[in-house]
Specification:
homodimer; 189 residues; mainly alpha; Arc Repressor Mutant, subunit A; Tetracycline Repressor, domain 2; DNA-binding
Chain lengths: 189, 189
Amino acid sequence: MSSSRRDQLIAAAADLLDEGGPDAVQLRKVGSASGVSHNAPYKHFSSKEDLLAALAARELNAVCDAAERKARAGSPLAKTIMLAYVRWALMYPERFRLVSGRWTKGASEDIAQAAQRWQKLLYVAVEAAQKADELPQGDPERISSLILSVAHGAANLALSGHLSAKGKGKAEPSDLVADLFSYLAHPGG
Amino acid sequence: MSSSRRDQLIAAAADLLDEGGPDAVQLRKVGSASGVSHNAPYKHFSSKEDLLAALAARELNAVCDAAERKARAGSPLAKTIMLAYVRWALMYPERFRLVSGRWTKGASEDIAQAAQRWQKLLYVAVEAAQKADELPQGDPERISSLILSVAHGAANLALSGHLSAKGKGKAEPSDLVADLFSYLAHPGG
DNA sequence: ACCTGAACACCGTTCAAGT
DNA sequence: ACCTGAACACCGTTCAAGT
């Protein structure tokens, strides 16, 4: 499964994506970068969108893998996981945008599955933090969504330059995530 | 200034955007919807991106206008402003995505200006809320960024279907914004 | 200054054919 | 099953010319 050629095409697409966004992922270039003709990709993906969806699913699963590895190493902290997430988003802006972009419904079952896996991971970490009294009680899913929203939004704002990067108000996405955990942890601001 | 034809083209672009996203904003259609030829837009905008940038700036300024109108009517509440923002985002997903999308640096001075106006508006509202003890003390800009992040991220997650829409964990973006204000207001969760 | 119609360039996609 | 080369369709953009 997942033939080497298929993986090769996805890897080529990832490189092109990082360099110039989705528009730069031209099937002709994906092909030539993989040593095949410009339309060989159609034997592995039904369309460009299908290729991008496969890439997005791969990326999100990689994020999950990293988080799980960290969790097994003994630090299943929700905060740690989210900080790693925003770090990834800033390191690979285009992949982050792709993963969180719009997907025509049904376009990718894999991506929906990866997203669910990712949410589940955070959910479990939030539950653990609640037991350790590091997060307030209340529906873990709701708190997960709040945390994920901040991480997502902060990364997006930073990437579009809408986060003041200078002066005393300066805040990196990681700072904002940390702020949220701080407010949630110690009441009283 | 802002000739009627120019506005007409932007309006046509907005309609097309709402219907099918940026790819659906085809200059040929923008032209024909405005009763001019397919390349008449080039007399008003240097490129498709320039047209989209003008549209984005118009939209964000409209959001600011609405918020200012509300503020003058006597409710300059940070929370109210943000709830209106997410409502707008869900009502016009494509405009929201466009505004918060990536802009090649220097592509639009107008859009950067509108973004700054928007942030300033929120900043002032946050300061007011702090004085009323409805928000914790601390750098207003930093708190503004946190609030904006949640609104942004929650709207994005909802639009990409990554927000659990069922079960007890169900949360609308407006719920998450309200949650944040609640956590910030009363310590203790 | 604003507009038109023809043309070009590029890229996603399809097709017919090869092994 | 996987690949190739030619061709088509579409759309952003440019050009020469009109008023």
